[in-house]
Specification:
Distance between the termini: 30 Å
Radius of gyration: 25 Å
Number of helices: 11
Number of domains: 4
Order of helices and strands: EEEHEEHEEEHEHEHEEHEEHEEHHEEHEH
Helix content: 10-25%
């Protein structure tokens, strides 16, 4: 029998932490279960998936603003909102362990053709890519600076992946207005030639009498992808076709371009550009443009557009929920409807 339910709200930096502690007795022994909802507001785009998914209407949104409000006194701590958040802005835990009531997002998959460079790490807007250096030049070769030689980068072969810069600090990746350049710091180079072996494109040529024997370098970093928001930027940007993004939200986006040209003041507004996590909205040659292949169909831009020039339709969410309450939550997200206040979320079984 449940003896006590305790609900607590806390704030840490930009994170909101809501806790529910349930106490009960079983065979004379006092038991406790702790559930947590953690809302990372800096990750939130205001897509309202969680607002529609919530079975007890504990979540509400600001009008035309990328934030939500969670009423922890109403929240039933089921965790459905965490499973359906495309921004990975909500995390659900039971007794400190991260849980997902049902799995929706497939995310990015690293393929065998991955060269272990840093492009996906640099481009990812959600910090979902983690790189761990495995090998650096000083691990296998003791450099002696001040030696003479030449190092040349063939710009036609170079894909600006930055793999050489992860291996040796004599090569530096510099980003200027979205353009990556590989620069050479001759003060940090002893012209050993190992960067030739590291480059997957054979774009580096070193001429020196101090070159060392090749050591069979195959791997420079380990790459892990977690909490992917499925924008697809890494797949489009990867120079080696080393990553595949499996999108689980299917939909369509329509823009009234004629009306947009007449009424949209994107220079002062920029709401769609600022809200879009996948950078699908951008400016080119003084015009607002949309790269539809990057759209996640989250509807955030539709909600914030003050001129109502954008329409996004979510057609399906690919998952296999077991409980009827989960299926109902998905249907509400698809139809942009909040839950009717009832206890239907408690029912388990098929519809």
């Amino acid at each position: 029998m449940i003896e006590e339910i305790e609900k607590i709200a806390d704030v840490s930096d930009s994170n909101f932490i809501f806790k529910q502690n349930i106490f009960w007795s079983l065979e004379g022994e006092r038991k406790k279960e702790s559930r947590e909802i953690v809302y990372y507001s800096n990750k939130c785009s205001g897509c309202r998936f969680c607002v529609y998914a919530c079975p007890v209407n504990a979540i509400s949104s600001y009008s035309e603003q990328p934030f939500i409000l969670i009423d922890h006194t109403i929240c039933c701590f089921c965790g459905i909102c965490s499973s359906l958040c495309p921004d990975r802005a909500i995390e659900f835990r039971i007794d400190g362990v991260k849980k997902e009531p049902f799995v929706v997002y497939k995310g990015a998959e690293k393929l065998e053709s991955c060269a272990g460079c840093a492009v996906c790490y640099t481009i990812c807007p959600a910090n979902a890519v983690k790189i761990k250096p495995i090998l650096k030049i000083d691990d296998i070769h003791e450099r002696e600076f001040g030696k003479n030689g030449t190092l040349r980068i063939d710009l036609e072969k170079c894909k600006k992946c930055g793999r050489c810069t992860l291996f040796c600090d004599a090569l530096v990746a510099v980003v200027d207005e979205g353009i990556v350049n590989i620069l050479f710091n001759e003060d940090r180079c002893d012209y050993c030639g190992l960067c030739e072996e590291v480059c997957p494109n054979k774009a580096i040529e070193v001429v020196s009498e101090y070159k060392v024997e090749k050591v069979g370098i195959k791997k420079v970093v380990d790459i892990e992808i977690e909490n992917c928001i499925e924008c697809g930027l890494c797949e489009i940007s990867c120079p080696y076709d080393g990553v595949k993004v499996h999108k689980s939200i299917e939909g369509e986006i329509k823009v009234n371009w004629r009306r947009l040209e007449k009424y949209c003041d994107w220079e002062s507004c920029r709401m769609c550009i600022n809200i879009c996590k996948s950078k699908a909205w951008y400016v080119e040659e003084g015009k607002l443009k949309l790269k539809t292949e990057l759209c996640r169909f989250c509807r955030a831009c539709m909600y914030v557009c003050p001129e109502k020039l954008i329409e996004v339709k979510v057609k399906s969410i690919n998952c296999t929920p077991e409980w009827s309450s989960y299926k109902l939550a998905i249907n509400r997200v698809l139809n942009e409807k909040t839950a009717e206040l009832s206890r239907s979320w408690l029912l388990e079984g098929d519809e």
